[in-house]
Amino acid sequence: MKQTSHEGVIQSIKNLEQMQALSKHEKIVQGIIDAIDTGTLTLQAGLPSVNTLIHRLGFARETIAKAYKDLMQRGIIASKNRKGYYVVSTNTDAQQKVALVLYAYDTFQDTLYANLRANVPANIQIDLYFHHNNTDVFEDIFNRIIGKYTIYVVAPIENKRTADLLRSLTPSKLLIIDRLMDLGAEYSFVSQEFAKSSARVFEELLPKVKKYKEMVFYFRDHTAEPSEIKEAFLTFLADNKIKGSVKGAYEYGELKKGKVYFTIHNPELYQMLKEVKEKGWELGKDLGMLSHNDDVIKEIISGGITTFSTDFAKMGKLSAHYIMTREKIREVIPTELVLRQSL
Q1: Tell me, what's the pLDDT at 340?
Q2: CATH code of the domain covering residue 184
Q3: What's the CA angle centered on 194, arms 193 and 195, to 5 degrees?
Q4: Residue 115 is part of which domain span?
Q5: What is the pLDDT of residues 26-80, one digit of tens each?
Q6: CA 99 from centroid of its chain's CA atoms
Q7: CA distance 293 to 299
Q8: Residue 247 — φ and ψ, nearest 5°?
């Protein structure tokens, strides 16, 4: 990097010396922002080292380090070993960068994202990542994004590797969403719960289920589908002497009249509805259908699909509030049963 660039940055900071309303830390931050806005600093341009600023400005090392950390948290600069500090964004209006790490794209996740996005200022950058319930993928994402965002909003994978990675973040920079992973009293979460809520929902559905000869649950082990729902389902069958079974996946042609079918997997649900339509059967009369995670499509398709779901819109709004305020929150959003024609 050319010395003239260093001189321009230092002069930009010195230009603020007479502004008594600004602390020394704020003068460094604003001086660097001004240097970017005027074109003195461009994308990937290096910044003066901490030692250089100590020598040229006479500020304490802690003051300069705090200013650089502030700029890093805003996503304006970054640091690499042997390269020092350098500019990674010229968007100086952006106050925060948010990493939103989810399981996979689905309509209910889109509802969460849309409500989060709508409730934070437009100048806050939100980057989406999907780990697909794969710990290796999660770890790769985490290693690529750590230190580059102001805040991390994460749907976790429930294992020790993931928990250890997340605990390496400052509690105020992390919000756990969707799945409940309690990392300790200082960490925040906005989550849903599966074991007790699923058991309650199945009991509420007992009068409906008893109209059918059998209940079939399509469930994929070793996926993002919550095992607590399967356990609650099996307990429900045993406690109420309901004939039923858990199968790995639906195959076209296996639907039968007089049974009720339950799936968490949306593409599978739509294939089942296609078979029902092709055979001219009536949902809620010839056979029943139950789905997890509500959305507007399930409200209108095939006369309406019965679902049980948490409120993902509320989850998105509460996540936005945390991003803006950093007020600690530890909330489990209730799961609600929505009865429609399919059952």
Answers
A1: 96
A2: 3.40.50.2300
A3: 115
A4: 97-192+312-335
A5: 889 889 988 888 889 998 899 999 999 999 999 999 999 999 988 887 778 888 7
A6: 8
A7: 11
A8: -120, 155
Which CATH number does the domain housing residue 55 bear?
1.10.10.10
Q: For the chain, give the number of residues.
A: 343
Q: Is the pTM of this model over 0.90?
A: no
Report the distance separating Cα 253 and Cα 244, nearest Å.
18
Q: Are residues 305 and 199 in the same domain?
A: yes
State how many domains the chain has.
3
Q: Domain check: are 183 and 201 in the same one?
A: no
Residues 8, 48: contact at Cβ < 8 Å? no
Burial (CB count <10 Å: 0-12, 13-18, 19+), residue 302: buried
Name the average pLDDT for the chain: 90
Mean of pLDDT values over 294-305 = 92
With 60 as the cut, is the pLDDT of residue 4 above it? Answer: no
